[in-house]
Amino acid sequence: MNSHQIKAQLVNIAEERIYPAEIHIAGGKIIAIQELAPGSLTDGAPFILPGFIDSHVHIESSMLVPSEFARLAVVHGTVSTVSDPHEIANVCGMQGVEYMINNGNTVPFKFNFGAPSCVPATSFESAGAVLDAKDVEALLKRDDIKYLSEMMNFPGVLFKDPEVMEKIAAAHRFGKPVDGHAPGLRGAEIRQYIDAGISTDHECFTREEAEEKLKLGMKVLIREGSAARNFEALIDLMNDYPDLMMFCSDDKHPDSLVEGHIDQLCARAIAKGIGLFKVLKAACVNPVQHYKLDVGLLREGDPADFILAENLINFKVLSTYINGQLVADNGKSLIDRVPVKPINHFHAEPKRISYFQKPYRGEATIPVIEALDGQLITNRLDLEPAVRDGLLVADQDRDLLKIVVVNRYDHEKPAAIGFIRNFGLKNGAIGSSVAHDSHNIVAVGTDDEAICTGVNAVIATQGGISCVVRFKDSSFHHNTLETHLLPLGVAGLMSADDGYTVAVKYTAMDHLAKSLGTQLSAPYMTLSFMALLVIPHLKLSDLGIFDGDQFRLI
To answer: Which of 354, 371, 364, 416 shows the shortest CA–CA distance to 385?
Structure first.
């Protein structure tokens, strides 16, 4: 690679200084940094700083394969991710992990994948694969696997489950960090969890919870994704714990990735009055040091991974470099598309309306999931059911909708059926084969016909998100169902299409869902977490309603 030089205002995070400098690049590395005399640059000269890092993200949740995720992310100054391939591993096992690594390697972007620790996440759901302790150890031996991914089975840690403890021990043997997942864990339990050798958590949703973990030496990731948004609750802690905090998105849909990434969190933190160098430690430095990443930090001898920003207020990214290669310039990605060959694991067959009917058995109350906008946690409500013709049905007047989970791996299994509040649909249904963590088919709707239609649309393309709109046909004077679909042919999680095209299609689906009456800011992302058993309090797996506090099916 030809050598070249860049003159800019250097943001030296280690020294907490900003000064004019000339950076010399050759062979993909920074070979020299020359400080220039004050005033040697013209007014308006850009700022050069290390590239941004998303310290915990499931690439699959962007609905894009890694190569397409990279094309969008570099525009916002992201040069690297700490990526948990947990989603595709639950569908396709080791083949899925290999798929993500291999596809990521086709583009100039620094993906850092972990070994999924919880496949399946629990024994209370049906996944498409199992990764046992031997599989996890085989992954951790590899140089391209940087860490043990989030240990969601925190009860397994607390009760010292042998399989769980062996996975953690394997990571320690190879000198690799263990990511945590401990929503709401406090007191003696969080101490025990940390003492097991788990060093991070991205699930804090209150300041008090995060501060308790920080005081115990745990590193806390401020998460701001498409559904879970914890920035406002946690950002002030960065004033006191700048060396123990990082930024992450966890799960980010394609439309919001087009709009921004870690750059947005930096801008918001500055607007909150957090010091520049504290913000940049979280966005650039701390992930590199914690995970021992091969990502440059603007030092002589480092890989030439950096960005040029117009200012240090909104961090408008002018250009992004990875290993000295210009990968984004003036808002345009310079990473070429690469061929994508899908893999999948999908054995569901079309369903009849009767498959989704639930007989009334005299229940005075039924357990109801209360979805919360901007959170992964849910509440449990016990409400009087709606009954018609001997069946439990939805009641839009009370915002009591039906939710179903359909096993995608075994077509003979019955549907799991429950009820949910706060989706607010007035007609129709939405469905998805993105359903954390096992990625069976989940749907919410106002009636069984609409739910069945939405589920069958997902089955027909072996994965996708669907929206079923019920409207009155003026010509025939009866209700008609209109079905819309965004296919996700890669494991039922991701599209093989151009990332920007997928973002446009997803935006259209989001608008359609909201036209049905939902007030949720990200209805499909929220829907995808209603089967996530490892987040309290009430969820629905393909095996039934699950109490996250008691950690059992009810």
So the answer is: 364
